[in-house]
């Protein structure tokens, strides 16, 4: 399927690894000019070079922290008028809410609620004027099915979800869509890092922990980031113009509800 977005420009945040990188690759395969970002310059350059080599697309990079105003200003200086915005950042730390300070909450809100809202604020009016805009926020399956030790994530991402639900309806008439993609367990560095931490705590092997994780998923496997990237590219395409304000779970069937 031709998504009809060749020549469009995308700003893909937090994209040197994992789900963000997969979104950048899938968009580049569609001929989209991609601006990638992450804090660490080395992994970012390596990812951008690999995507250029595979797709021939124009890929530029900005090493910046998306959770800070200064970082976002640098992203927007490099890509002031994106047609496509993919919001992403690292997830907050796990733990017991009794141990979290106000600063912990502000950090989580900065990363997983305020950064995407600020980038939407800076780019959406241009999308409205050009009568094309696609915004995808990478959130988490925890928005629909809270994970008890990830309260910072459950809370901050729910805030973004509520905000977006209202905004999506205000801009739909201008062919600007806003959707959230909710990953369940995908095989990324983050997921592997969590498995390594659990292995150190429990004495089990990393492979046993990953296998147990796979068995919790009805599909009996972890998600491939490429599947996530392609779902993102579809939402950013012309054909997805009638789809907005949605929260789409990609979790191999883990969420047990009918709707
Ligand atoms: P990942 O493999 O660890 O990759 C994270 C990417 O984000 C890296 O490129 C990282 O590069 C960048 N990044 C992190 N913090 C950043 C910041 N402040 N500013 C700019 N870039 C930043 O993680 P992932 O698994 O793809 O997860 C992406 C998001 O989905 C996270 O919010 C995660 O909580 C959420 N999620 C993931 C899963 C899963 O199974 N993988 C499930 C549910 C939710 P630098 O570190 O160099 O900045």
From TrEMBL:
Signal peptide: none
Domain of life: Bacteria
InterPro entries attached to this UniProt entry: NAD(P)-bd_dom_sf (IPR036291), SDR (IPR050259), SDR_fam (IPR002347)
Pfam families with a match to the protein in the record: adh_short_C2 (PF13561)
Family named by the database record: Belongs to the short-chain dehydrogenases/reductases (SDR) family.
Protein name, per record: 3-oxoacyl-ACP reductase
């Amino acid at each position: 399927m031709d998504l009809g977005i060749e020549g469009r420009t995308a700003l893909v945040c937090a994209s040197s690894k994992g789900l963000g990188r997969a979104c950048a690759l899938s968009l580049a395969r569609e001929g989209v000019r991609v601006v990638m970002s992450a804090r660490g310059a080395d992994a970012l350059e390596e990812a951008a070079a690999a995507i250029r080599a595979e797709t021939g697309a124009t890929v530029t990079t900005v090493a910046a922290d998306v959770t800070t105003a200064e970082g976002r200003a640098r992203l927007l200086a490099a890509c002031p008028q994106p047609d496509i915005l993919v919001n992403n950042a690292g997830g907050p730390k796990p733990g017991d809410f009794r141990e979290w300070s106000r600063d912990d909450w502000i950090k989580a809100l900065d990363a997983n609620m305020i950064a995407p809202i600020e980038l939407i604020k800076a780019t959406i009016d241009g999308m409205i004027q050009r009568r094309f805009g696609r915004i995808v926020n990478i959130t988490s399956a925890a928005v629909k099915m809270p994970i008890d030790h990830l309260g910072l994530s459950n809370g901050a991402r729910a805030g973004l979800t509520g905000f977006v639900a209202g905004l999506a309806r205000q801009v739909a008439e201008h062919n600007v869509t806003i959707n959230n993609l909710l990953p369940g367990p995908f095989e990324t560095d983050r997921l592997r890092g969590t498995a390594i931490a659990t292995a150190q705590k429990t004495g089990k092997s990393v492979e046993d922990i990953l296998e147990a994780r796979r068995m919790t998923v009805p599909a009996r496997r972890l998600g491939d980031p490429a599947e996530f990237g392609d779902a993102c590219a579809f939402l950013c395409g012309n054909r997805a113009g009638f789809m907005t304000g949605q929260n789409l779970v990609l979790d191999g069937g883990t969420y047990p509800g009918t709707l």
